[in-house]
Amino acid sequence: MAYPVILKRLSQHIPVLRRIINERDTLRVERAQLASKLLELTDERDHLQALLQNLSKGNTHSGYCHCCRQNTFFQITGTWLRDEYLCLHCRSIPRQRHLQHILDTRFVGWENLTIHESSPSNDFVARWCQQYSASQYFDGVKSGEWVNGVHCENLECLSFNDNSIDIFITQDVFEHVFHPELAVREIHRVLKPGGAHVFTVPKLSTAERSEPRARLSAGGIDYLKEASYHGNPVGDGKALVTWDYGADFERLIDAWSGLSTSTYAEVNRAIGVDGEFREVFVSRKPL
User: How far apart, in whole angstroms, are the C-alpha atoms of residue 48 and residue 54?
Assistant: First the structure.
């Protein structure tokens, strides 16, 4: 409320009145701050009540999240754990937490290494790494070029120098690559001796053999199976699935890359790792 003009003038000449007005203004500010804090506490109370209800139902439990690096609660929101088993703090899903767990336990000190991530959809790796870079794929754009401030790289023809990267990360990217054999060779080329490709990919438990779903031809894309799409952090939000990977996946990757690949598929709810397609693959380049 605006002061009457006469009150303002009087306050300039009467110290006691000026002090009273200043104290009133201070109290108004404190009252507004308390009201804001009350709203925050109300929201926190509602969150805790919902958490207690979920705990009583058995679909929420405590644990440690390697993505946000803190003790947290994990919540199961549906039967498809791949996307419905969440960290309530950072909203990560199992494969993301598992990959971070592998980095933390198998590559101690990775935060100080040179890391490149292809097509990231989150900052879970970037927030901890000092020498991190990322890229996205834009159709028709050459590797190494930039699109609206975003670095473009085609996995089949990378712009990086030989032996320049310690860890190359791809999370659910290889099922969208037309020529994965070229992509793994390129990653092998840019890895430093002793470096590693750390990645996830949906490996189908029902498929014995890996098969392409689509191929590039002179006329465009030949669809060998019904077109299927996953989410994409750039463009129109859709990424065509080009390969279905099966039981022979690791053998294929090793044959294509010349590297040795290990598979990590543990179930560990203490760190929020369970569900479909939680596997993390690590291909290491010899020293």
Answer: 10
Residues 235, 126: Cα–Cα separation, whole Å:
21
Listed residue (46, 66, 67, 90) closest to 75, CA to CA:
90
Q: In the CATH scheme, what architecture does the domain 97-284 have? A: 3-Layer(aba) Sandwich (3.40)
Write b or e for each residue in 227-240: b if 16 or more Cβ atoms lie within 10 A of its Cβ, otherwise e. eeeeebeeeeeebb
Domain residue ranges in the chain: 5-56, 97-284
Contacts of 22 (CB under 8 A, 6+ apart): none
- pLDDT given at position 1: 47
The Cα 43–Cα 77 span in angstroms is 21
The series of mean pLDDT values per 10 residues for the chain, 287 residues long, is: 61 74 81 85 72 68 96 94 96 98 98 97 96 95 96 97 98 97 97 98 95 93 95 88 97 93 97 97 96
Token pair of 44 as six digits: 């926190």
Per-residue pLDDT at 34: 86
Distance CA 224, CA 69 (A): 43
Alpha-carbon span 117 to 270, nearest angstrom: 26
Buried b (16+ CB within 10 A) or exposed e, 45-57: eeeeeeeeebeee
Q: How many angstroms separate the CA atoms of 14 and 135, rounded?
A: 66
CA separation (Å) from 285 to 133, 156, 168, 201, 202?
A: 20, 18, 11, 19, 23
93: tokens are 């899903």
CB atoms within 10 A of CB 103: 26
Rounded CA separation 173/157 (Å): 15
The structure tokens listed for 279 are 């596997």
